[in-house]
Amino acid sequence: MKLLFICSRNKWRSLTAxxxxxxxxxxQVRSAGTEEGTRIRVTEGHIGWAEIIFVMExxxxxxLKDKFSNTxxxxxxxxxxxxxxxxxxxxxxxxxxxxKVSEYVEVPE
Length: 109
Known about the structure:
The protein contains 4 helices and 4 strands, in the order βαβαβαβα. It has helices at residues 13-21, 44-49, 58-68, 91-101, and strands at 2-7, 28-33, 52-55, 76-79. It has a 4-stranded parallel sheet with strand order 2-1-3-4. The longest helix has 11 residues, at 58-68.
C-alpha cells in the first residue's frame, strides 16, 4: 500500500510518519509539505502515486484541494488533526501518529 503524509514544511510531522511507517507491512511511504521552502514540496506526482493521503491539519486539505482537485478524485484523503507542536521523532508525536493512523491501516507496535 502506498501512503503519503503531508504537513506544512515536511520537517517534523510528515517526515516522522514516513520514518515510522515506511517498509512496515510492505507499505511504501512518502512525505511532503505544502509551503514554500519545504524540504520536499508536494506535487501532482505524489498525489497520483498515493493510495491513501494523510494530512496533519485541515489547512493542508484545503491547499491540496485548491492545487490538485482533479488528481484527488477517487483518492482517500484523511485529516489526522495533529497540530504543529512536535519536533522530528518526538515520542508523543509517534504515539499520536500510530493511534490516529491505526484507524485506517495496520501500524507497528
